[in-house]
Amino acid sequence: MESTLKGIRGSDAPCVLDMDDAATVAGGVGDTYGEDCATEDQLVTPWTVSVASGYNLMRDPRYNKGLAFTEKERETHYLRGLLPPSIVSQELQERKIMNNIRQYQVPLQRYMAMMDLQERNERLFYKLLIDNVEELLPIVYTPTVGEACQKYGSIFSRPQGLYISLKEKGKILEVLKNWPERSIQVIVVTDGERILGLGDLGCQGMGIPVGKLALYTALGGVRPSACLPITLDVGTNNEQLLNDEFYIGLRQRRATGQEYADFLQEFMTAVKQNYGEKVLIQFEDFANHNAFELLTRYGTTHLVFNDDIQGTASVVLAGLIAAQKLLGGTLSEHTYLFLGAGEAGTGIAELIALEISRQTKAPIEECRKKVWLVDSKGLIVNSRKESLQHFKKPWAHEHETVGNLVDAVKAIKPTVLIGTSGKGQTFTQDVIEAISSFNERPIILALSNPTSQSECTAEQAYTWSKGRAVFATGSPFDPVEYDGKIHVPGQANNAYIFPGFGLGVVMSGAIRVHDDMLLAASEALAEQVSEENFEKGLIYPPFSNIRKISAHIAAKVAAKAYELGLASRRPQPKDLVKYAESCMYSPVYRNYR
């Protein structure tokens, strides 16, 4: 990945290991209120501007406990009469809320109920999400979050992050200072131009940063107060939204060119000035032409991460590494064919090539020849090179022109088929039967989100491959019975990687993201797949163990940051897994003084 970006920057441009004093400033945040270091049995003070009490305490989601306030707390904090006399445990509250959520038949209603809980009672929201992650993950994130973004203007009740529009140009630093929290460690930012597989949703893309950061906390343990969702509103080209009376964003066409670049430059400068060198900025759902440009421009000057390019690549590589344990062999023995040559497809392809290069010691250019990509115009080949976008050019190999996917499968004869096209039902019966005809166990990954945009369903993959496919998707699918055997599809969900990756970056005080840190995350995830998982055909571990998985990923990422000299938190902890677990936010209620 870094090799590709360095190629775009130019041969004399710096890489992430070249630290420029001019681009490096002091930074980092402190645990002012003891949220990280306090054990669950220690007393904490519910600070807002002053000590929260009475009605204000009940309206503060960080400290509100509802009916779980004890008798002493009700007396001390002037809550008498403001609550019914009953005192209940957090566990009983959890059972009650889950029972209520399960009554809703429509996923969007469940999403709204969860968002309402997050705005009322932060700890109960995260307790619910952690304890019921497999059931609630599809609600707070893909696929339901896609529908939520489409209807965000209609369901909007109160802001959950910062909206920075072109109106604030020249004042972005002031806008950042309006956010009440000062100790920010992770920012997820979008401009809403490419939300999942749904296209340009403009300002309504805010559901994505909010959802991602909820997972940073629930799955990775980054404390909620250290997370900041941001939407950059530069307009939208979605005519339906521009004509929608409930649309909440700027009613103008998207800014492009120099105006857009200047706006992003001001934003990136303001973030570093306000929050320091060590705040992780995750770019989310930017269009291809901007995603690569931003990663190229700011990768050497800021701590930046693009989940669509790097996170997706890391989780897919983890699945492929695990698949080698299931099937035998090595990554270099496979031929890879992608449908989709955007930021996800090329990002995955590059990380696969990097890992093959690392394993075989072969030049990266040679390793790329094992990877083929199909875009909207067919197979990417040398004869098309002049007309290709810069990020596609490394994947143009010598071959005759091939116009469609099924012919590409027959010509290339891949062992691994990966879909990142954002278009549903593109892995047709002809395609899957073709790859199954020359592979005993074809690896098929239909990664596009949400569910409606998946290249094929689990039932189609198993049926058309006669139950032989090693299959995983981007969105969840139910188990499938074929020929008397239950097949459980894996989910190549970025949520396996980015929460633990972010925790590793934060706890090590890393100041840049390097490709080797992504490879370390992939290897750490693959190590968590058990023999029991393999017996079910799974190449990813169950989400029920996600916090344990995230701690191991964080430890491997942090270790690599220390090894590369990119970590600033010294001394290095002796046991990084235990240290990662100790850093994780706990949603259990605290007792108040």
TrEMBL record:
Cofactor: Mg(2+); Mn(2+)
InterPro entries registered for this protein in UniProt: Aminoacid_DH-like_N_sf, Malic_enzyme_CS, Malic_N_dom, Malic_N_dom_sf, Malic_NAD-bd, Malic_OxRdtase, NAD(P)-bd_dom_sf
Pfam family, any one: Malic_M
Binding site for (S)-malate: R194, N449, N493
Domain Malic enzyme NAD-binding: 309-562
GO molecular function: malate dehydrogenase (decarboxylating) (NADP+) activity; metal ion binding
One of the protein's GO biological processes: malate metabolic process
Protein keywords: Metal-binding, NADP, Oxidoreductase
Keyword Nucleus belongs to the record: no
Cofactor note: Divalent metal cations. Prefers magnesium or manganese.
Family according to the record: Belongs to the malic enzymes family.
Name listed for the protein in its UniProt record: Malic enzyme
Source species taxonomy: Eukaryota, Viridiplantae, Streptophyta, Embryophyta, Tracheophyta
